Each structure stands twice: as C-alpha cells, then as structure tokens.
Amino acid sequence: MNKKISLGAAIAFMAVVASITFCVTMLFSQDIFNKMIANVTEKEQMYDKIEEIYTKINDNYLFTLDEEQFLNATGNGIMSGLNDRYARYYTQEEYAEKLKEDKGELVGIGVTVRYDTTNGYLTVEKVYVNSPAEAAGLQKGDVIIQIDDQDLSLITAIESTKLIQGEAGSKLNVVYRRDGVNETVEMVRKNVEIPAIESRMIADSGYIKIIDFTDATPGQFFATIENLQEQGATSLIFDVRNNGGGTLDSVLEMLDYLLPEGEIATSVDKSGNKQVLKNSDAREVTLPMVTITNGNTASASELFVQALKDYQKADSVGTTTYGKGVIQTTYALSDGSAIKMTTSYFNPPKSENFDGIGIKPNYEVALTKEQEQNFDMLDETNDPQLMKAIEVVNSLTES
Considering the entire predicted model, what is its pTM? Predict the structure, then answer.
C-alpha cells in the first residue's frame, strides 16, 4: 500500500538531506585541503633544506664545487631515501647506456670479457656473431692486454671496458695474446646486437637458454624456435637460470607466442587499480615444454615460468626463484638523466603474486657448490637440473 506525504514534509526531508550532504562534502573537502596544505608544507621544507645545504656549501666549502657531481649525488641521495631496493638514479651517460641495453644493443667490438685480477687483463668469454671481434678473428680464451697505447694491467676493470666502448665508426687497435703469442688487430666500433638466446639440439629436444629479456630477445626467440623445429625438435627446454629479468614488454610478447588465448599478466598500482598488461591470441606452440630455474631467476623470467605453469604448458625443474613481482618505471629528466622506482605489482595470469616468495619448482633439483662454481662448464652429461628437465620433457613426449 502506497503512503502519501505532504508537500511540506517532502520539502523538510529534502532540506535535511541537502544539509547532511553539505556537511559531508565540507568535511571531505576540508580533509583534502588539510592534506594538501601538509603536502605543500612538507615540500617547502624539503626544498628549503636542499637550498640551505647548497648555500652553506657554496659559501664555505674550501675547494671548487663540481656542480654536475653535486647534482648527480643529490639525485642518488633522493632515490636512496625511498627505501626501494630497485630504485635508482641514472646520470646522462648511464641512462644512455641503459637505453642501449634495453634495446639489446651495444657500441663496441662485440665481446663479453672477464677481468683477470691476477694480471689486470681482459679474457674473452664470448664473441658475438657479426661483430668486429668476430671479423678480426678473436676467439674465446684470447687475452686482451692492450688497447691503443694503453697497457690494461695499469688501469682498472671499468677503465679497461670503457676503452673498448666508444662512438660507432671509431677505430681502435687491440693487442691480444693467444698461446703466448701477441697479435695486433685494428677494429672499427659499431652497433652490435647482444645475443639474448643460446640454443642447440639435445637428442630430439630443442634447448633454449634465455640470457636476458631485451627488445631484441623476442625476434631471436621466435627465429630460434622455428629453427629448432626445422631440425626436428619434438619438445622444448627453456633455461632461465641466472636470468635476472629485463623489459616486461619483451617477455609478454614471447609468452603471447607460446600461450593460448587469454590474459598473460596484470598490474596493480598503489591505489589498487588493476590493468591487463597483455592478452594472448589463439595462436600457440603445442610442443611439450619444461623450464629450468634457480635462485637468480628473477622478475620477467619468473613471469615467463609462472605463466607457462598457469596455462599448464610447462612444469619447472631446479630451485625456488628469486621472488621479484614488482614493476619499475623509468622517468627521463629534462637534462638527460633519469630516475627509476617501483610503481606497481605485476601478476601472472591465474596465480598469486610471487614477490618476496619466489616460485617453487615442480621438480626440486639442486646443484652442488662445486657445480655452481663451474656452472658454465655444465652440459647435459653433468648438469643434474638439465638432466632432470630432459627426463621430464621426454616423459611428456612419450605420453
């Protein structure tokens, strides 16, 4: 039964509602205003303190102030004050190098080197394909003892590697030692794509070691899988041990290639806002797969492992991963420097975030301390984690 109310009662009721709404709005606005005032005051205090420190230094410091060094140190100090283990300040030069690393490129002669603390020389660990070093005939094990007129034993490791780097198109003379004999070669520095993938056939399995996730990794990854399938691969083994991550876009693109249709990953910011980072299309690789992990498997490589698990595409072998499930965003500054800080969580498609926890393998297999120390010497004949991965993927192939 409907009840009628008088016009006067209705007006009075509306007035009460309006009054309550006004009060709530005022209180809410006042709270926001107070927070704004507090933030403004805090900012003024911070700026005043920096200015006060700078004035004291400028007025009283005995020596000449290096303005650039002071600004860079200030940037470093601010970022270290965030209590964010992944936050960082980049100088102009460091940020330029970071951009090249994210692209998977470097300017140099195309080698990976190891600094020998006993003599100060650089031992060649790897020579990149289509690099100046490869064209000049450098090989793994060669010892670089001099660059141009500089004896490397007289300078630091950082100074030595900086001598290898330089502008694309510039020349350098490298003296290297092989079997006790010194050779001198002239090379021209150029942009070299850093190999992010290593692969080979192990019986009928395609073994793929993913070294890093850069903008160049997906292209290398797709070409590698196609090549291994042409060689007759009936299963795939993905080795992401010691892979500390890289660009999120690259791993999302690679997972899209492997996974069926559905969400690949989502992010959640400090306000709880959820965003789908990428959806996979219906195309997928249907070969049996397995991943190999260890405690240095982190960030993007952990997402790679867990996403394959979530879609029941691949079990994992090895040890629990590092546990980094957060996203860092880099912001370029007006002078060419940059800052990086953690801005959100990223979550795998179906399971919980693994930040601070890591991902446990389906098959726990640990290396001995001696095997870890000689990791680069391990292969399918003496690497228990790889051997278990082969066993697992072979059982999937047979079934």
Answer: 0.81
Name every residue whose Cβ is closer than 8 Å to that of residue 177 and which is 6 or more positions away in sequence: 121, 142, 143, 145, 183
Q: What is the pLDDT of residues 251-298, one digit of tens each?
A: 999 999 999 999 999 999 999 999 999 999 999 999 999 999 999 999
**Contact in structure between 319 and 361 (CB atoms under 8 Å):** yes
Tens of pLDDT, residue by residue over 342-365, are: 999 999 999 999 999 999 999 999
Longest dimension (CA), the chain: 109
Q: In angstroms, rounded to a whole number, what is the distance separating the alpha carbons of residues 220 and 226?
A: 10
Return d(Cα 175, Cα 182) in angstroms, integer: 7
CB 290 within 8 A of CB 315: yes
SS3 91: coil
How many CB atoms lie under 10 A from the CB of residue 127? 20
Containing 10, the helix (H) or strand (E) segment is: helix 7-60
What's the chain's Rg over C-alpha atoms? Answer: 28
